[in-house]
Amino acid sequence: MADTFYNVPADKQARLVAVHHRGADGAIVKDAVQPGRPTVNPIIGGGGLSSTASDYVRFVRMILNDGQLDGARILKADTVEAMSRNQIGTIGVPALKDALPERSDDFSFVADGRDKWGLGFLITADQLPGKRSAGSLSWGGIYNTISGSTAPAAWPA
Length: 157
Description:
This protein has two helices and eight strands. By secondary structure, the protein is of the alpha+beta class. β3 and β4 (72-73) form a beta hairpin. Mean pLDDT is 78; it is low at 151-157.
């Protein structure tokens, strides 16, 4: 993953896409500050992480292949299994009210109140028509960049 950064190098900043927000009147407005995002050093999880679709696909392939990518072991299979296992017991994950409505919308999960958290992934609890499969893993970003993955019966290595 050669194009994933918390602090994007100066020679790659021109590749960052413009960020927009919802103005007070509801109109979509391009942010004034763009180059060099993020403007703060994140201290948790993926907050402030910038990447490319290509790097993201490599990451997802590694997770779907139990921690292996292109013949290299990145994570132990046990680690990926733990990341994918319910880590909150009987507690359910309810819909989230957006703390930054100018950046994204409220978010309801597939099985509101029944979905679970693994180590870094939301785990879909129920199969609903037109939604992710039960057991699917997903996570989301501040700009409603919701993503997920379901391992098919035979995923290419």
